[in-house]
Specification:
five-stranded mixed beta sheet; four-stranded mixed beta sheet
């Protein structure tokens, strides 16, 4: 079914609230999204403008087109721009043949009626880790194949912790983490840095603490949600986290951690390359849940999708392109390039063999949860924005955590 103008306009509003969470840079190509059905040319859009045609990724896209018997015309946009352009292209009847999109956008595109089910295309997703494909599953049907996943954990500076007499292995829950931060501060160093900015990045970074307290996104103002926000506020008020977390993106938060002054930095898989260049010994631990164990962390990463076309005869070649991009052999190289954790156990094992530093990240991804999972789908943006607004309000001192989340829940309920 070709989507209606009304559903597309509604979806545009939802996509506009979501921002990129991966390590992808900005910039875009203004190439046309139309496809030439008669000339064997298939259009492919992705959110990787930092990779040109000569990069391993660019070459792989070209090779997969060749193997499918087609010429691929690739266009790269930044993540938010890609979602908007996809909706507009569908409205105009010239959606790309294959499209790689940020996972929380999948449900919005599905609601707009512009993505095919993987089952209808005959794509096999049985080997994909359940929680990873869950981010692109709506009403028990998947609408794309994940190319990989990234998520959050806590990087720590071994020298800073050692000087403060803290063993990273002692951090098991919120109390032990806060105690470690207090020891670090007493030793003259800084505690923890993270991003609490008023964008999706702020929500992304808050979710492990919210979920780690047992919070439910349909009840932002529960005691569990209040506990998570109170933890962050306590850290900021006590000087265990800097006040500039309110303006920190995940990039600027990383830059703070990279100064070598901080004990901990909440950040993602995509910073591993930068961590190796930081000039100090570091380690990685899972974000602890309130009462122990690993907190659920949000899943980042993209899905390869096949948009609805007027000419369904194009789907066979599109399917071959998707299968090539997501084959085990190609996933290993691609996920290494993107610093992603592969979506299948077999490729994850190969990744850890090649780079043992990825082991804690495989564990973190195993505990990860899709932001749109649990039936939230396209409702997620109407919850996320009030949530990050509440974080800003509480950490700045404008409202108590309880009042801030009461306001957020009221706003989300109207979304």
């Amino acid at each position: 079914m070709i989507p209606t103008r009304r559903t597309l306009l509604a979806a545009l509003a939802a996509v506009g609230t979501l921002a990129s969470l991966t390590a992808c840079g900005g910039g875009s190509d203004d190439g046309s999204g139309s496809s030439d059905a008669s000339g064997g040319t298939y259009t492919f859009w992705d959110p990787y403008p930092q990779f040109d045609a000569s990069s391993p990724w660019g070459k792989l896209v070209t090779e997969c087109g060749t193997k499918a018997g087609a010429t691929v015309k690739r266009t790269a946009y930044d993540t938010t721009d890609l979602g908007n352009k996809a909706l507009l292209a569908a409205q105009q009847g010239n959606a790309p043949d294959v499209m790689l999109v940020d996972n929380p956008v999948v449900s919005t595109l599905v609601e707009a009626g512009i993505l095919n089910k993987t089952s209808d295309l005959g794509l096999d997703t049985k080997s994909i880790q359940e929680n990873i494909i869950g981010a692109g599953t709506i009403d028990d049907a998947s609408y794309g194949v994940p190319i990989g996943a990234n998520t959050l954990a806590l990087y720590y500076n071994k020298k800073v912790l050692s000087a403060a007499g803290v063993d990273a292995a002692s951090v098991k829950d919120w109390n032990s983490l806060t105690a470690a931060l207090q020891k670090v501060k007493a030793a003259g160093k800084k505690g923890i840095t993270f991003s609490a900015i008023n964008t999706e990045e702020g929500s992304f970074q808050f979710l492990p603490w919210f979920w780690g307290a047992g919070g439910d996104l349909t009840e932002l103002d529960s005691d569990k949600g209040v506990a998570a926000l109170s933890l962050w506020k306590q850290w900021v008020d006590d000087g265990l986290a800097p006040k500039d977390v309110l303006q920190n993106t995940q990039t600027t938060s990383w830059q703070e951690f990279a100064t070598g002054d901080y004990a901990f930095g909440e950040n993602g898989t995509w910073q591993l390359g930068n961590a190796d260049k930081a000039g100090f010994d570091y380690g990685v631990i899972n974000i602890p849940a309130q009462n122990g164990g690993s907190a659920p962390v949000p899943t980042g990463g993209e899905f390869v999708t096949v948009p609805v076309q007027k000419d369904s005869g194009r789907y066979d070649v599109s399917k071959k392109i998707v299968e090539c991009l997501t084959s085990d052999a190609n996933l290993l190289a691609t996920d290494t390039t993107l610093t992603y954790i592969a979506p299948t156990a077999a490729v994850q094992l190969e990744q850890v063999k090649a780079n043992p530093k990825l082991e804690p990240w495989v564990s973190a991804v195993a505990a990860a949860r899709g932001r749109t999972s649990g039936g939230l789908g396209s409702k997620y943006p109407t919850i996320s924005e009030p949530m990050w607004t509440a974080v800003q309000s509480a950490l700045s001192g404008g409202k108590s955590p309880k009042d801030a989340l009461d306001t957020a829940q009221s706003s989300a309920g109207k979304g």
